[in-house]
Amino acid sequence: MELLVEKTSQISGVVKAPPSKSYTHRAVIIASMADGKSLLNDPLNSEDTLASLESCRAFGSEINNFKEQWEVEGTAGEMQTPHDVIDVKNSGTTLRIMTSIAGLASNYSIFTGDSSLKTRPMQHLLDALKTLGVEAVSSRGDGKPPIIVKGGFKGGKTSIPGNVSSQFISSILIAGVLAENPVELEVTGEFISQPYVDMTRDVMAKFGVRVGYDSVSKIFKVNPQNYKSTDYTIEGDYSSASYLAGAAAILGSEITIKNLFKDSKQGDKLILDILSCMGAEINAKYDEVTVEGNGELQGIDIDLHNAPDLLPTMSVLGALAEGTTEISGVKHARFKETDRISTCAKELTKLGVDVNEKPDGMVINGGVKSGIVQSHGDHRLAMALSLIGLKVGIKIQNAEVYGVSFPNFPEVMNKLGCTMTLR
Question: What is the pLDDT of residues 66-82, one digit of tens each?
Fold first, then answer.
């Protein structure tokens, strides 16, 4: 389907940020392993998070999913072997976290997904799990899905490179709690996207589990423990809110976004500093943010190694800003839903933007025109490109993929005064 975004002069209003996709994934997976019933308030009902929910059901958890609350009856750590192959669709987070959890079941579990997911690298996680007693292999022998896992999470010491995906680390920590013996995980090399692991530890703590970490040696230590059921409320998502905040900044408008917490551990909270540096006025309170733009952003140099999901938003802001914007530190963004460096550069070039692609980012010289672009099946690219439409008008093909993380995106934007039509 195609999303038609019309040129907009101004937006205004108060809107609630969609629930965090990252927190929803972690909360439902951990609650499914706890002893008793947990209530997850304000979860994100999206394609990705529902993939995690269905995976948890496959391993024995009973879940009632209502729009604003999920009731999760945990397995108390007794993970069943799934009766069938688990299709996680396009959710890399689901695949990576559940691969380690499958090691807690007694027999074989098989994970697959769509064509995009089958390009996602998994070998580093498979190698690390082998050291911990879990037999996990790529069915095609190329380190990518489908993945076959044989249960037997003994525990012990292992290591994993920190420069590919923080989800590998989160995966081992979440499942390692229920291993037979303590787990010691060393992160080797550069530790990218660390805020996502901080998020994981935060959710684990809410469910009664502590994870030790030595920042000098970069070693995590997890002792055998039990997750305790609890009531948990999902906070708003800074990644999704970046499109709302960005729209206010580029249009010289003012909006307030609720359910964004000032003390959040989300790395994508960096969007507030970015917009401030580019010329917008940011007023962050305890649980809401007001963004006031003047419509004239200035290009900046920005390192996104701890916030790679902001790359599509940042590339579009750079295209709409005066001067040059240089984005660095996101080599790992090439292994997301798409090679995001390449696809961002390709689509911006279609719109007349001067883009110089680099191994770990891009250099963008501001200046853009209207046109027709492609989402490449990437939800974040589709939503980011819509911001250009607010300035010059645009058509985005295969745009319905926004449902992966922000199911009512056009409706929310239209409520603020935009005109977006999916047809």
Answer: 889 999 999 999 999 99
Contact (CB, 8 A) for 55 and 105: no
Residue 309 annotated to the active site = yes
* Matching residue, tokens 């926004």: 402
CB 275 within 8 Å of CB 250: no
Q: Is the dihedral of CA 242, 244, 247, 252 positive or negative?
A: negative
Residue matched to tokens 């003012």: 254
**For residues 378 and 361, what is the distance between their CA atoms, to the nearest angstrom?**
17
Query: Tens digits of per-residue pLDDT, 285-337?
Result: 999 999 999 999 999 999 999 999 999 999 999 999 999 999 999 998 898 88
Catalytic residue among 237, 309, 339, 354: 309
Domains parsed from the chain with CATH numbers = 2-18+236-422 (3.65.10.10), 21-233 (3.65.10.10)
Q: What is the pTM of this model?
A: 0.92
Strands 361-365 and 324-328, by their bridges, are: antiparallel
Contact 278, 297 (CB under 8 A): yes
